[in-house]
Amino acid sequence: MRRVGALIFGPALGFCFALLLDCGLGHAQSAAAIQQYVAKRNPGCDIFGFAENYRGPLAGSPRPVVIAAYTVEGCGRGNYYERFFGVFYDENGTVQQYKKPPGTLNGVERVTVAGGRITVHMKQLGPNDPRCCPTVSRQAVFELRDGAIVPVK
Fold it and tell me: What residue numbers bound the domain in which 105 lies?
């Protein structure tokens, strides 16, 4: 894996800036293009905190991927927010995303890739935690199978 980009995004200012080095991938793999893809699929929400966690090959994908964590906030519900991850790829110059696992998977802190598996490191709410401040660490392991991100059993 080679770190090739960084993104600074100010939701209140409505701008983003991506610094991308030559990585041999198309525009659809740029941080800016992926963030636009996520924003389009979450209308009325603020998208921020985009963090690229991995860029490169992934078992089950015929093309390189970018795995990123990001926060979706607002969406007509005040200060409500969730932190997610996505596995993105370039298909004919456009951003595509592998299907996410069913259910809610949020509180994502970071994502790592080893041995073809995706490990999602999360903080979840404990029984006495306020909504703002999850304290329970959790990990979930996934792999790409048949075009979808699926849990490893």
Answer: 5-151
